[in-house]
Specification:
The structure holds two protein chains of two kinds. Chain A is mostly helical. Chain A has seven helices and no strands. By secondary structure, chain B is mainly alpha-helical. Chain B folds into two domains: about 70 residues; about 35 residues. Chain B has three helices and no strands. Chain B is flat and about 55 Å long. The chains are: A mainly alpha, B mainly alpha.
């Protein structure tokens, strides 16, 4: 065991499952950091490509501020409901907050799919210009993360219902929460870099 | 064990929600109503975004310099450094190229 693993375990105390859970949380944190690097580079690509519209439509022609605001509110609300699920005491309440989180996430992905299909049907798909390629790559990668997150929430709900809030299940719930909150942070970057300057 | 077992409190999540709402609504309103000149609006969007990321890290991911394990903070700092080098470097090189190619 490395020095850092040792100190984590020492702080977690002698309780074996908690020690494991602390190490897993650190490993998951490292994964989130690598995901942050991926998104940062997609942001950099988008900014470099932002002038490359090839005579095609720009953000001003394509984006709807009220829809982006709606997506932002749905994702922020879902981050809060996930947080409330992690502090809830009983199985019933945890499952109720998680179901609400999935519903809000579905609303978010639904709005995004509507936006994407609308753009593609207007001839503003990812093949139209470098700008739109970068847009679909960045926003689509985030949407894919959110979709995978919702599948994972459904799996954890199943585990809570079947196994109850055991130590392994609640430790999975906490890591999934970190993932979900992380995706909301990436979305702050998306509306601040892509949508708001795009309609300005 | 803050980040290893990131359980916040009811109160922390609701505080985070209120602060995040303020920091989201402000830039959307500035863009929607166009009350400031373009340069100032961009600056306001950037400041609100940075503040909101800090709010989310603090209230949703429970990053706290006093209680979060040093390993997690080191990973966060190293990631921030990597992002600055790679994103800053890419933008510098590509915009310098645009300028020199007179595009």
């Amino acid at each position: 065991m490395t020095a850092s693993g040792g100190s984590l375990a020492a702080r977690a105390g002698s309780d074996a499952p908690t020690e494991q859970s602390a190490e897993k949380a650190f490993g998951f944190w490292v994964y989130l950091m690598t995901d942050a690097v991926i998104f940062a580079l997609l942001f950099a690509t988008f900014v470099v490509m932002s002038t490359g519209t090839a005579g095609g439509p720009t953000g001003k022609d394509l984006f709807s501020l009220p829809r982006t605001f709606g997506e932002t509110m749905l994702l922020l609300a879902s981050s809060t409901t996930f947080g409330l699920a992690t502090v809830a005491k009983t199985k019933r309440v945890v499952v109720r907050w998680l179901l609400l989180t999935i519903l809000l996430g579905l609303g978010f992905v639904g709005l995004e799919v509507l936006e994407f299909t609308g753009m593609i049907s207007r001839g503003a798909g990812p093949d139209r210009s470098g700008y739109l390629s970068a847009f679909f790559t960045l926003v689509g990668t985030h949407g894919l993360h959110v979709s995978i997150g919702m599948v994972c929430i459904a799996v954890v709900i199943g585990q809570i219902v079947v196994k109850g809030l055991t130590e392994p299940v609640s430790s999975r719930l906490l890591r999934l929460g970190m993932f979900w909150h992380f995706l909301d942070i990436v979305w702050i970057g998306i509306f601040s870099v892509v949508y708001l300057p795009g309609v300005l | 064990m803050a980040t290893a077992r990131p359980t916040g409190t009811h109160r922390a999540y609701l505080t985070g929600l209120v602060l995040a709402l303020i920091l989201t609504v402000t830039p959307f309103e500035l863009v929607y109503f166009g009350v400031l000149p373009k340069g100032w609006t961009i600056a306001a969007i950037a400041v609100a975004a940075i503040l909101q990321v800090i709010v989310h890290l603090r209230y949703f991911l429970h990053v706290d310099f006093r209680i979060t394990p040093g390993e997690n903070l080191a990973a966060l700092a190293f990631t921030a450094f990597l992002i600055c080098v790679m994103v800053g470097g890419s933008l510098w090189i590509m915009f310098d190229l645009h300028y020199r190619m007179q595009m």
